[in-house]
Amino acid sequence: MRNLRLLRRFWATSLAADLEYQVNVLIELLAVGGNLAGSLFVLSLLFGQGGSLGGWSWEEALVVLGLYTLLDGITSTVLQPNLSTIVTHVREGTLDFVLLKPVDSQFWLSARTFSPWGLPGVAAGLALIVVAAAQAGARPDGASVVAALVLLLSSTLILYSLWFVLAATSIWFVKVWNATEVLRAALVAGRYPVSAYPVALRTFFTFVLPVAFLTTVPAEAILGRGSAPWLLASLAVAAFCLLGSRKFWQFALRFYTSASS
Amino acid sequence: MPIISARGLSKTYRVADKQPGLGGTLRHFFARRSRDVQAVSDVNFTIEPGEIVGFLGPNGAGKTTTLKMLTGLIHPSAGEVEVAGCVPFRRQAGFLRQITLVMGQKQQLIWDLPPLDSLRVNAAVYGIDDSEAKRRIDELAGMLDLGEELTRPVRKLSLGQRMKAELLAALLHRPAVLFLDEPTLGLDVNAQARVREFLADYNRRHGATVLLTSHYMADITALCRRVLLIHQGRLFYDGSLDGLTERLAPHREVRFELRDPPPAAAFASYGTFESQDGQQLRLLVPRSELTATVGRLLADFDVLDLEVSDPPIEEIIGRLFRQGAVS
Asked: What is the reported pTM?
């Protein structure tokens, strides 16, 4: 409850800080529009001759792209602005202030700021999912909507945990900007259905870097092709990753020496 | 019942050892060598509630490391610490609510927003409701002489105004123990004085315990009756400021001019003979015998002029810091 009140304060102040720079607001809005147009263009090239992508029709693949856009929006809204500051906190020693607050430090570092520039992406992703699912002829019932939401939550948690762990390694390596960029680039693979990739990559994206759980699995649930085992597996992976990130953070803090005064 | 106690407190850091130049860089990249550095070793002290204690030492003496162990930011390699009845490194909420750390060279205020926004976040963090937060902000702002600065973006504030706002943010939750690491760093003389007055005032009003490091001796002489001096990781002195002067400079220098100076040997019973330059002589005399010795000199010789120099504490400690050694 107290954390909810805190979250409201956190996000209200970060919104205020963002709006301090008016020109930046305009530029960010343009960037969001440009990104989405680019994604649609690439997908239309892939389907240029008609046909299918790894057994997925154009409309079905659009659902995957919608999920990717949605996740990317969530990333830009919450994950990226927060997790990228962890490195700065470690390098400049301001992590001290976070650790001295009577608030869970992982919560603080993960939820401190909020950037409205991802919200158009979230909206565009949702719209794309709804339209594409309808065109693909999917008539999702209540159960598959719930399943899709649960899967989406799992995928967000998985993405968050991976990113957080990478950022937390800055406690040892101090500079890990590149590593988090590589992660974000790898996740771009989630734009397309995982079955569109060769078997080796598909295995990698399922078991090593769980890209499959991020977009393909939720899309299948929306299209009515979801299965209970995938749902459970996705939840299990999310729980495992989240727990792992917490344990890892506690472990990492034991090595924190705090940048010199 | 002390509010801060350290027993056998030690910290060893592992630091990378890199030779200069390209060769050194390559070797450092492929085969990193490191060595252990003893930052703090076997430090013992206790501080009673309400005390203001100055924490002195040259750069790299282990002051900040000790402060970080006391606040629970780093884990001691050996020894025990207790602050406000808690073990700092566990960083329990009950402990964190009772302490605060102000660092002159780091800031917690949000750069792009007025201090009031940061204060609202801090109020929520410590679970202070809005009306109580407003009351406390008004009180502290009054003591710090802050007004419209609180609604101006932090990036537009002067260093002195920003430091005062930092103090406000750090004290909103009424901590019982204040750890201040160079709180007046870079401030001009007036702003330093304001911060000092505020700290003394806050200590009087709330009975808070303060442990303060500063490179400005004026901060220490104005606020602290007791000082801890740490040198090369060891506690070198714990006691009053006057006692420290006596310990570091047990002698005073007496310069005098005689109409007809006798040979140097004649002064053996007065003090340590330092030098003679024509009619000018210099003697080192123990503090305790100063008045008696001066009296005898005036009685025994035809003294034209006499001057006793009392090196100010700043100079003594400054010299100590520069030399980096304690005799």
From this structure: 0.79
